Amino acid sequence: VFEQYQKSRVQFVQTVATLSTRPQNVEILHSAGVMPLLRALMLDVVPSIQQTAALALGRLAEHSEPLAGALVTEDVLPELVRSLGEQNRFYKKAAAFVMRAVAKHSPELAQAVVSCGGVGALVLCLEDFDPGVKEAAAWALGCLARHNGSLAQSVVDAGAVPLLLLGLQEPEMALKRTAASALCEVCKHTPELAQAAVDEGAVAPLAQMVLSKDAKLKLWARSANHSLDLAEAVVVAEVFPAALTCLRDPDEGVRKNVATLMREVVKHTPELSQVIVNCGGLAAVIDSLGNCHGNERLPGIMMLGYVAAHSENLAMAAILSKGVPQLALCLSEETEHHLRAAAAWSIGQIGRHSSEHAKAVAASNVLPRLLELYVDPGSSEDLKDKCKRALKGILPVCTHLPALEPLLYAAPNNILKHVLCQFSKVLPRDSKSRRLFVTNGGLKRVQELKADPGSVLQEHIDTINGCFSEEMVSAGREKGSGQKRRGAPGGPNEAERAEQNSPQACPYGLYAEQLSGSAFTCPRPANKRSWLYRILPSVKHKPFTALSCGNLTEDWDEVEPDPNQVGKGSAR
């Protein structure tokens, strides 16, 4: 009879444990009142029945928060903790699994585990000889600490941190990862908790296992996030450049975590950023941006922005490492607004330093894209704000006018005034830019703009119009085109004379520039007046190529001129 009774109990608890692995059975088992039955079987005299009952309870609690709450209501946890120190390693693993299944759902359920003495019991499990028991306990402690700083502090107060650090030195890789992950959950909340891990000697074991995948990288990132001292501890531990190899790891989580680690280090000071740049971290992150998509790109995008924000030299390092084209690619390819906002912010940090930085950004044709996202009604408020800030940071230092011309046609007035301000600064001093401004239709567009009298926008328009003759401005207003350009500053009459002495500057083909009207190119006895011209490429014509470029493969057949036709000292 007793054997049959024991076999029935074993069969029952094994069947329930098997059924609880399937989500569709969980609610049915709970409705049938399986919780009290399993609680009673946890006190059974047969160890295997106790272990299987605990396993079944853990699977039920893991399924949903209401079932985990029901397990707490049934007072299963106190019985579990009370008997934990007297049981074998199989029961300890099952008990740790139950506490993890309950604690992971919410801070309230995690607090219930703490209140019944679960943290102390789990710390005792960390002292067990069996690696599986240690791993189960570390996993449960990580689930407890993840919710808030108060729960994480209870884990620290129970003395778990030194034992978790010992777990990092075990040969089993699964235990190492679980221990590092638990430490990560402890460190992420406050600088004090992160400092507690460092004070216990976390730096040395983590530095030794930096290439052993992702959990320790997450811990480094969480630690470095809090303070400059912790970030410096990461660098002093010589985590870099060894961690850079993880950017090529097949696992997405590993790649994301190492980029997060670098982001948290570089954001503190220019010196830490320079360390990362010197060890090749900047180029490695930029390369990784081209091989990933979605949220995996976010840490790398932000890392570029943090580096560039510190100084002109670091921003130029981002440019020379081809960071701007990658950010422009992210801005175009990604559809998530927060990713676009991060890319816009980083672009703004790179381009705001000087005209050279702004030119490098503008050369990637990213300014029209920023403007497009800024005026798009479908963009989020954060994305619009980041694009506006980027434009307002780059435009005041951008003197590369060809990149600014497309903005004349779509920019709202609050952005347009910055665009026109740059034209009003450059055009009075650059005759070539004035000619291009006319032939490309920029002057016509300026005449079409409507501005309030006395406004900043109108002042910039007046300054631009003052760079050209009244006839050209009038032609721009009436016909929308103007082919003449004003010469060097010095008054309308001088400009008109310069226009009369120069051939027309057609947009295509070649044009001739008059150099002289003297007669030295003609024999004096002939008494004929001649003109010397220089043939130049026009605006849209390809530039001339030097004769020495190697394109000419035949011998150059140069005919010597008649000596009687060349004056003494004249140039041929």
List keywords for this structure.
mainly alpha, Leucine-rich Repeat Variant, two-stranded antiparallel ribbon, 34 helices, 2 strands, 63% helix, elongated, disordered C terminus, Armadillo, microtubule binding, ARM-like
Strand elements, count: 2
What is the topology, as strand order, of the major beta sheet? 1-2
SS strand fraction: under 5%
CATH topology type of the largest domain? Leucine-rich Repeat Variant
| Overall pLDDT metric | 78
Shape: elongated
Unreliable spans:
213-226, 479-508, 517-524, 565-572
Name of the CATH superfamily of the largest domain: Leucine-rich Repeat Variant
Judging by the overall fold, what is the CATH architecture of the largest domain? Alpha Horseshoe
Secondary structural class: mainly alpha
Rounded to the nearest angstrom, the distance between the terminal CA atoms is 125 Å
Question: What is this structure's SSE topology?
Answer:
Elements: H1 2-19, H2 23-31, H3 34-41, H4 47-63, H5 65-73, H6 76-82, H7 89-103, H8 107-115, H9 118-126, H10 131-145, H11 149-157, H12 160-168, H13 173-187, H14 191-199, H15 203-208, H16 214-226, H17 228-236, H18 252-266, H19 270-278, H20 281-289, H21 298-310, H22 312-320, H23 323-333, H24 337-351, H25 355-363, H26 367-375, H27 381-394, H28 401-404, H29 413-426, H30 431-439, H31 442-448, H32 456-465, H33 470-478, H34 492-500, E1 510-516, E2 532-537
Antiparallel strand pairs: 1-2
Helix pairs in contact: 1-4, 3-4, 4-5, 4-7, 7-10, 9-10, 10-13, 12-13, 13-16, 16-17, 16-18, 18-21, 20-21, 20-23, 21-22, 21-24, 23-24, 24-27, 26-27, 29-32, 31-33
